[in-house]
Amino acid sequence: MARRSGKRAVIAAVFAALGLLFASASLAATSYFGPANASAVANYSTPGFNNRSTNEGYANSGGSGSLLQIWEKHTDGTTIGSASARGDVFASHGVSYTQSFCGAADGYATLLQCLWS
Amino acid sequence: MTRNLTLKRTCLAMASLSLVIVIVSVLLAVANRETPGVAGGGPALSVLDTAGPSLPPEVASRPDMQQRLADPSASRLAMSVRGKDIFVAKGHDNTICLLVVEQDSDRTTSGTCQDISVLGNRAILLVVSDAAGQTETIGVVANGFTSAHAAGQSAPVRNNAFALHDVQLQDVQVSGNGRTINADIRTP
Description:
The structure holds two protein chains of two kinds.
Chain A: H1 2-28, E1 55-60, E2 67-73, E3 79-86, E4 88-93, E5 100-106, E6 109-116
Chain B: H1 2-31, H2 57-60, H3 63-68, E1 76-81, E2 84-90, E3 95-102, E4 109-115, E5 124-130, E6 135-140, E7 147-150, E8 153-156, E9 161-165, E10 173-176, E11 179-182
Antiparallel strand pairs in B: 1-2, 2-3, 3-4, 5-6, 6-9, 7-8, 7-10, 10-11
């Protein structure tokens, strides 16, 4: 009797484990709800990336839904424009500006800046 | 005897727990797919099936577009508003990209790529601002949504896209098919 109950316990444990596995996979599918504040912006482009005549920058918070901002400025500091989005944002412009700043912010607090020349 | 009874109860409890977990998981999975899907998975975006213009060549050839987009030539112009061309494109890793191209000589372009699952119950949003600080909140939604609203302002959804002038991203709502939802993934 005890042996049979033991088998049942093992089967139930296997089912529970499978259930937990399934639940974890299901929750992972909605992972764009990340931590409230990503600790840092993960990446931004390097100076002169691939082609110096094309200026571009990007910010990505590694899957979290943090609000990121990127902006471009002339070398005299005047702003060309900016863009904000959750988790991932990028910007680029053409050949008119030989130098520009890019930046990325998490929650509008400056974390990174870069200068292309 | 008492030991057997306890063991039986434990088995029953564990089996019930696993059943509940499986049911909840299935319900969560169904909730994530409340919008009709398309071939390849994810919510439907009819703009990608239109014959509309794709990104201008001088933008499509930039390294970031080449890296981000699955095929820049398959991007589609959804709408133009206040000096901006709004494009939608498929990105890599099951993402959808929203691109805003300024109609200036330099074709300043900004964008965001988000997992397509976001469109199951939210919008992909991008806020762009100009030198004077004027903002446009631009969004992409799945098929079925017809209008966007925020702060007493309303804008139609055209080709899965909309634009609202000078509103907070967190306040945007979209409506269609008898339902209204918050567009921002962080707004409950």
